[in-house]
Amino acid sequence: FSVKIYGATGSVLSANQQAGLNFEEKIEIEVLSAESLLQEIVAEEGKIDVLKMDIESMEEDILRSLGENTLRRIRLILVEGKFGKDVLSTTHRQSVYGSITRFEALNPVP
Are strands 74-80 and 92-97 parallel, antiparallel or unpaired? Predict the structure, then answer.
């Protein structure tokens, strides 16, 4: 997987050029799915007490991509935004506080 970084306009480009950044350079990065990353954490810690997500409107896609086994090990998920009542309905109770949606595990793994 490679990412190409493109130049921006105005002061951002000037600041980046002054910092010596080369916008035509390709860099290789390792990419993990959210499921893989959370499984690694659960394997080490046994559970996740609180997961705070802020990923620029991709939260629902990520939440829906997580397996039930992983979700049962996350006690509390906090996300900015509002979601349909079916999101995580089999594993978490959903409540909304202003712009924050709180998903609390129904039967968390101890």
Answer: unpaired
Tell me the CA distances in angstroms from 46 to 9, 38, 55, 66, 91, one per residue in order: 46, 11, 24, 16, 17
70: Cβ contacts below 8 Å, ≥ 6 apart: 35, 38, 39, 42
User: CB-side exposure of 62: number of CA atoms within 13 Å?
Assistant: 19
Encoded tokens for 85:
């009542």
The H or E element containing residue 18 is: helix 10-18
Summarize pLDDT for 45-90 with one digit per residue, the tens. 899 999 998 888 888 999 999 999 999 999 999 999 888 889 999 9
**Distance between CA 52 and CA 102 in Å, rounded?**
10
Give the per-residue pLDDT at 12: 43
